[in-house]
Design brief:
about 575 residues; alpha+beta; 3 domains; 5 strands; flat
Length: about 575
């Protein structure tokens, strides 16, 4: 590494680490404020909060890295330009592009690390985060009985204390017992002059000792005679009484992480691909079922089976064939292992391996070429079978159309004069047909809504999968914007660089959010929508890089004053010619 590289990289790494910590801290605060009212006041330990903060810090890194690169690049090259160090470098014959090289290589490595973080580290961290957050949110608040306020934290009881002395001594106590699920209302009340509250067995159980009190209990049965008689009323005076409560519900549980694995934000890239393929096969199955639904619902269209269009049947046949080929390959792999284990003859083992060599080359059992070829063979066979069935119209219709009309007319308008025309048949047929159509319409709408839900979920998975790459590339694009702008404005510190960084990051955030929504709603292809923000900012980066190489003064007033003079110059010449 040359001296110029050490100078530039040394000037960059400090502001980068500083801005990364600041940006990550800001994003962390935004996230914590979202769940503040759900996790505070529950007696959680500092270690639990530290664990949650660590998880949230890692989860917010996809947004923190691009902004940190943008701000630190502007600050670094702004400081170099402000102290005339860039001018000295250029005067020695070193171009601006060569000056950017060490930081550019670092940003390339950072982009690779960000890609790994987005595809592997962040999803696994999100799984830990949301399982821990669920435990924290479902944990009940810490036991804290306040004076003059009914406390309902203990299931089945409502406790009011008018005066507390210290943490244990209580006076003037009222307790409503609602622990009996089959009894409604305040049928059991306990009044006590004083009491003492303490926990035991590592704070798992709570004991409430009551002194000089009375227990009132009203028993009323559900039958009419007992209600008329007024029921049974019991009054029990006591000098001392003990009540014990189980506080296990106040402890934070350990939720199974598998409950959150279906969420797209906790899945790695390979898991997202598997989920997308599974949902695509589900979509094809639902679309094919639409046509079988037609034949089973409408009774008067004279069609046994509705043919499935090729644009639906061909992709479904492909996914079905791929799935079957994978299953066959895995079964062959299992047979191969069993054969090897049962055979003691090395020659037989070698022969078995040779027979399965072309079929079992990778961990799934087949090479991609073998999978596609086998799937295509099965697809072509299925399509050919469907075409033969479609050519034979007799396979779909019971009778010809003319025969059906004749049978229909004969039923409702008989030609035989001995058979009296029954108008009831026609009216009942019309009513039945209308009801059947309405029912079919409702079922069809339900199935279409269900199909659209699966498609929307698939689009969300596609958006998440492509965002893992686009957010990584955002680091590189932010560097292409930040470094030239810093070289142009020649201002370091936290003044103008912060303002410029915020402006471009807001542009990135707006287009990124818009693309995310467009992709999920199907307005734009999800694989393209997530790249809108990068596509918009990349021309800005290339433009600023070109201007920085030419030592342009885009952020100076004189530049725009000269530009305005050039714009006015042709008009001023025309005015002089007219006056002359």
């Amino acid at each position: 590494m040359k001296k110029i590289d050490r100078l530039v990289f040394g000037s960059f790494i400090g502001p980068f680490l500083l801005t990364l910590v600041v940006v990550d801290f800001i994003l962390l605060l935004v996230t914590l404020l979202k769940y503040f009212d759900q996790i505070m006041g529950k007696g959680l330990s500092a270690a639990t909060f530290a664990e949650l903060i660590t998880y949230f810090s890692i989860s917010s890194s996809p947004d923190a890295f691009p902004l940190a690169v943008l701000l630190s690049s502007i600050m670094t090259f702004g400081n170099l330009g402000e102290h005339s160090e860039l001018t000295a470098v250029k005067s020695s014959g070193i171009s601006l592009v060569r000056t950017l090289l060490p930081i550019f290589l670092f940003v390339i490595l950072l982009t690779g690390f960000t890609y790994y973080s987005n595809t592997q580290l962040v999803p696994k961290t999100n799984l830990k985060t949301y399982s821990l957050l669920w435990d924290m949110r479902t944990k009940k608040p810490a036991l804290d009985i306040k004076e003059g306020v009914f406390y309902t934290g203990i299931p089945g009881y409502s406790i009011k204390v008018n005066e507390k002395i210290g943490d244990e001594q209580l006076k003037d106590i009222i307790i409503y017992d609602h622990s009996k699920s089959n009894v409604q209302g305040n049928t059991e009340v306990i009044l006590a002059d004083s009491g003492r509250m303490y926990s035991f067995m590592n704070q798992r159980y709570l004991t409430l000792e009551l002194y000089d009190g009375t227990r009132y209990q009203e028993n009323i049965k559900e039958n009419y005679e007992d209600k008329i008689a007024g029921g049974q009323f019991v009054r029990d005076d006591f000098a001392s009484s003990k009540m014990s409560f189980d506080l296990s519900s106040f402890e934070m549980g350990d939720t199974d992480e598998n409950l959150f694995r279906r969420s797209r934000i906790v899945q790695t890239r390979n898991q997202l691909k598997t989920g997308i393929d599974s949902m695509q096969r589900d979509i094809h199955n639902r679309e094919e079922q639409m046509f079988s639904f037609v034949a089973n619902t409408f009774n008067y269209h004279f069609v046994k089976n509705a043919p499935v269009p090729e644009q639906i049947s061909k992709p479904k046949a492909f996914y079905d064939s791929m799935r079957q080929v994978r299953i066959d390959a895995k079964m062959a792999k299992v047979v191969k292992k069993d054969t090897i284990q049962l055979s003691d003859n090395k020659g037989e083992v070698t022969q078995v391996i040779a027979q399965n060599k072309q079929v079992l080359q990778d961990e799934n059992g087949l090479t991609d070429r073998a999978v596609v070829q086998s799937a295509n063979d099965k697809i072509n066979a299925r399509i050919e079978e469907r075409r033969r069935a479609q050519d034979n119209k007799a396979a779909y219709t019971k009778y010809t159309f003319a025969e059906n009309l004749k049978r229909f007319d004969e039923y409702y308008n008989p030609t035989d004069t001995l058979v009296r025309r029954d108008n009831t048949r026609l009216s009942s047929a019309l009513s039945f047909g209308i009801n059947k159509s309405r029912s079919a319409l409702n079922i069809l709408k339900t199935r279409l809504n269900s199909l659209e839900t699966v498609k929307r979920d698939q689009r969300k998975f596609v958006v998440t999968k492509n965002q893992q790459i686009s957010r990584s590339m955002a680091c590189l694009i932010m560097f292409l914007i930040g470094a030239p702008i810093g070289a142009i404005i020649k201002k370091g510190g936290l003044g103008l660089p912060v303002i410029v960084s915020v402006i471009f990051f807001l542009i990135y955030y707006v287009f990124n959010t818009t693309g995310d929504k467009w992709g999920k709603e199907g307005v734009v292809d999800p694989a393209i929508a997530v790249w809108i923000s990068n596509a918009v900012l990349l021309p800005f980066g290339l433009f600023f890089l070109r201007q920085a190489r030419n030592d342009a003064s885009l952020f100076e007033v004189d530049f725009y004053a000269n530009l305005l003079k050039r714009f006015k110059k042709p008009f001023s010449k025309r005015k002089e010619l007219k006056t002359a």
